[in-house]
Design a protein that fits this description.
Length: 270
Amino acid sequence: MEINELQKICKAVRRDIITSVTAAKSGHPGGSLSAVEILVALYFQEMKVDPGKPHWEARDRFVLSKGHAAPALYAVLAERGYFDPAELKKLRQLHSFLQGHPDAKKCPGVDASTGSLGQGISTAVGMALGAKLNGKGVRVYTLCGDGELQEGLVWEAAEAAAHYRLDNLTVLVDNNGLQIDGRNQDVMDVRDIAAKFAAFGFETIDVADGNDIVQVLAALDQPGQTGKPRMILCHTVKGKGVSFMENQAGWHGKAPNAEQCRQALQELEG
């Protein structure tokens, strides 16, 4: 797919995030907006998937370890054709399959239920190990938040991934620098993320602008090292695309009101 088409999809996904979270009157817009290019690159270019066969055994797997960014994942799945985009307006409603965190038993295209931070990457490691044992050539991708890296479970998973030589596993980190209580470095400094993963035995790739889909795709296209899992560190902007949300921790878990929604959509049309 051409880059300009992928960029158009990114804009559509951002609009979907804003409208769905506004309709729900709750949700997590900030970290959803920062992850858009990562998810679009995966689902529209990198991963082997078939929206018409969401349970296809040979598909690549994706685990949203930062499960609160579900509005972004749902928007990408809808734009990719897993379900009708009209369903996005039912986000967080009773009986909707689009709940506040992804539910693999209900939502088409969701490979793992997530929410509790640190558990998603651990699930992804198990999936990658299973795929290795089955010898089916399945690749596994997981997206973690930078604040999530404060969880000890993340590093237990990283240790296991390197120990089992899971070169079919890619961990992407949405490094927007903020979490619900403020700046990561003030809450609990995660320090040198790349150096940490490298110390655990990962190949590491740095993406200077994780909101530039060209750079994200270039990182994903790099050939991996045999016997090593890889970590792609994507430097992003929380709330990307909406001026009053950008780099504001307050928009981690707050829905815009009708006027703010109108302003955000107007900016995203530009």
